[in-house]
Amino acid sequence: MRIGILGLGRIGAFHAETLSGLDAVESLVVTDPFADAAKAAADRFGAEVVDSPEALLAAGVDGIVVAAATDAHPALILAGVEAGVPVFCEKPVAKTMSEGVEVLKAVRGSDVPIQIGYNRRFDAGFTAARAAVRAGELGKLHTVRSTTLDPAPPPAAYVAASGGIFRDCSVHDFDIIRWVTGREVTEVYAVGGNRGADYIKEAGDADTTGAILTLDDGTIAVVSNSRHNARGYDVRMELHGFTDSIAVGLDDKLPLRSVEPGVTFPAGTPHDFFMDRFTDAYRAELTAFTEVVAGARPSPCTIEDALEAGWIAEACTLSLHEHRPVTLAEVRQA
């Protein structure tokens, strides 16, 4: 098949590399406002370069991958749907929840599939955890812990435009908690602090946060995030039930050092970047998209799914700013 890529920044170039290695993908068509980025992709992957999204959609593509800036996501999703071309779009659907809801309304009733990029759904550990929960191996859940710790904060320009740590970082934890447990979040309570880069505080954001999520069956989920984890990129999940407990992310590349006498785990070089930690997941995610394009499976992460994670992020942001518990029903009505 022939896949178009819109946006060739860090993640777009990474997707181009991944797609170029998939058996199902015969050719790539790319476009980016920066001509050098498009030329680099053409030189490296033999991609065809066009000068606009319109030209790309007219180039006979079977599916498109939207990796452009967040502000462009709504228009590019709708353009793909209008052209009848299956769409893969990196999260979020839109910069604000109201815009995301409008996108959902606009595509409702269309049979053009849309897949939103939440790569943890394709990680082997998270997939196994979901299967264990579904099979009842843990018994009734009572506690979930989910962690995302970045090795260093993003640039000031990114922080200023990201919408905050809950919307750009924690949202991955929120999505995977829903996906693994199969439950919905009903209420949140969030706290945050600033112990590092001054520009994060100046942007009105926190660099380290914690959130307590109450799920609709009474399970408590604890989410921990930070922009500062010098040992590496740390993504983990624990699930504790009345029958068993399991963990995702406890491998030899875990960025954590044990001080217990005689303990050598973890023994490997720590994960230092999200592309390192989730290389296989990204490949599986885009392989799934080629199956969506081929009509062999439905979207594994819909706009509705992405918006649900977004509402949790909205509730946590409000809770942090107002120092109080916030229900999901409250932010949906706002």
From TrEMBL:
**Keywords assigned by UniProt, alphabetized:** Oxidoreductase
Oxidoreductase among keywords: yes
Q: Which residues form the Gfo/Idh/MocA-like oxidoreductase N-terminal domain?
A: 1-118
- UniProt cross-references to Pfam families, sorted A to Z: GFO_IDH_MocA, GFO_IDH_MocA_C3
Q: Which residues form the GFO/IDH/MocA-like oxidoreductase domain?
A: 126-243
Quote the InterPro entries the UniProt record gives. Answer: Gfo/Idh/MocA-like_OxRdtase_N (IPR000683), GFO_IDH_MocA-like_dom (IPR055170), NAD(P)-bd_dom_sf (IPR036291)
What GO MF terms are annotated? nucleotide binding; oxidoreductase activity
Which family does the UniProt entry place this protein in?
A: Belongs to the Gfo/Idh/MocA family.
Name of the featured protein: Dehydrogenase
Q: Which organism is it from?
A: Streptomyces roseochromogenus subsp. oscitans DS 12.976
Q: Source taxonomy lineage?
A: Bacteria, Bacillati, Actinomycetota, Actinomycetes, Kitasatosporales
